[in-house]
Design brief:
The chain has helices spanning 12-18, 83-93, 122-134, 146-152, 167-187, 191-207; strands spanning 2-6, 26-31, 47-51, 66-72, 94-114, 162-163, 212-224, 232-233. By secondary structure, the protein is of the alpha/beta class. α3 (122-134) runs antiparallel to α6 and α5 runs antiparallel to α6.
Length: 234
């Protein structure tokens, strides 16, 4: 069996999975950079980093190569007009009868969660809106359309599900996402926007300790077989 993790990053998904599978299963981490991945001597012997650009033409050696392909957290990378070609590329990676697992945060479900109704949520809402105006990657619309996109690619038996994180995990996810707004403040060429973002970001780093977080629904799942498949988003 051969499994690919597309956009492997740190390789954490592969290494965690590898601990549950026989060493005979080939685990390939596909990405355009491996700077975040541990050095080869620290990786399991069956984990192999391989260069792969998800938006480029699929090299022949990858076509129909994998039994399972895993994709996660491309919502802030891919634009709406990228998705059809990317999905076609992912289908090419699969062997007939193979599975693809795809999980994403749905930014269109953005909301503010409160521990108490009287908590002031305006600051967090403003932070998200300011950042979204500066970078289109923070306002993708394709994630909730994934089931329809699969159908467009002639996949059959599409099913989908959407899950929400419990509050204690939502807080952890919120903490991980807050630095994004700080980075946008640093990189924007607009000094007025940078000052506004920086000020709002600093205030909200404190407010989340009082029971305010940005929440998003999570979509994810697997579908079976090239051109004829099943999708279960979870």
């Amino acid at each position: 069996m051969r499994i690919a993790d597309v956009g492997t990053g740190t390789g954490i998904w592969l290494t965690a999975l590898g601990a549950q599978l026989p060493a005979s299963v080939h685990l390939d981490g596909l990405d355009i950079s491996f700077e975040a991945m541990p050095p080869s001597p620290w990786l399991p012997s069956n984990v192999t980093p391989r260069y792969f650009d998800i938006i480029a033409e699929v090299p022949k050696e990858f076509v129909h190569c994998y039994d399972i392909v895993h994709v996660r957290n491309f919502a802030f990378v891919l634009q709406d007009n990228d998705i059809h070609s990317v999905l076609e590329n992912l289908i090419k990676l699969l062997k007939p009868g193979g599975y693809l697992q795809w999980a994403e945060p749905d930014v269109t479900s953005f909301r503010v969660e409160k521990t108490e109704p009287e908590n002031d949520a305006n600051g967090l809402s403003d932070l998200m809106k300011i950042s979204q105006r500066q970078d289109a990657r923070l306002r993708p619309t394709w994630v909730p359309k994934l089931p329809a996109l699969f159908a467009d690619c002639k996949l059959e038996g599409v099913e989908h599900d959407v899950r929400d994180a419990p509050p204690y995990l939502a807080l952890a996810m919120h903490e991980c996402n807050l630095p994004i707004h700080g980075l946008i403040a640093q990189k924007t060429g607009n000094e007025v926007v940078a000052e506004e973002l920086g000020r709002t970001h600093a205030k909200n780093c404190k407010r989340n300790k009082n029971g305010l977080v940005l929440g998003f629904y999570q979509m994810g799942g697997d579908w079976q077989k090239t051109r004829q498949g099943r999708l279960m988003l979870n």
